[in-house]
Amino acid sequence: MNKIFIPLLAAGCMLTAFPVNAEVKIGFVNTQRVLNDAPQAAKAKKKIEKEFEKRDLDLQKLAKQLQTLQEALEKNSVTMPESERRGKEREFSDLNRDFQRKQREFKEDLNLRQNEEMAAIYERVNKVMKAIAEAEKYDIILQEAAWASPRIDVTDKIIKALGDGK
């Protein structure tokens, strides 16, 4: 009995040595809301839209050209000579392949630029979050939670700090 009782007594004494009322200051930030509401995110979105505007318009023109060619083929294929029809179908096929390639490249380039801009925004958000945590003496700020009390939500503070340029 002593072999079991002595270790339990020792563990109980050790637990009483630690402060029971140690307060931990916890914060929570809704990262998605920060990314949606931060002025840097809106600025980045406009920058990317402007950067890709010409390519988007070129793709729209090419799509319209494809549609016009397809409608002409469907409408006139019965009355066209065989060689002319094959030539138009080849032209449509080549144009469609070119359109799909350009569309794929556009999407890849757009995703790459969005990821670059988001990485810069994440870096800025993390710096602001760290500054607020240090200034207000938070022990931890969580970015993911199933639920968080509005009492510990620091999202508005971070958005405000991003807007102030901190």
CATH level 1 name = Alpha Beta
| Full CATH superfamily name | Skp domain
At the fold tier of CATH, the topology name is: Protein Binding, DinI Protein, Chain A
Range of strand content:
under 5%
The number of distinct helices, counting runs of at least 4 residues, comes to 5
Class by helix and strand content? mainly alpha
Secondary-structure element string: HEHHHEH
- Summarize model confidence as the mean pLDDT: 87
Rg, Å, rounded: 31 Å
Poorly predicted segments = 7-15
Domain module tally: 1
Shape: rod-shaped
Helical coverage, percent range? over 70%
Biggest sheet details: 2 strands, parallel
- Give the quaternary arrangement of the chains: single chain
Which strand order spans the largest sheet, edge to edge or round the barrel? 1-2
Notes on the protein architecture:
This protein is mainly α. Helix content is 75%, strand content 4%. It has five helices and two strands, in the order H-E-H-H-H-E-H. Strands 1-2 form a two-stranded parallel sheet. The chain is rod-shaped.
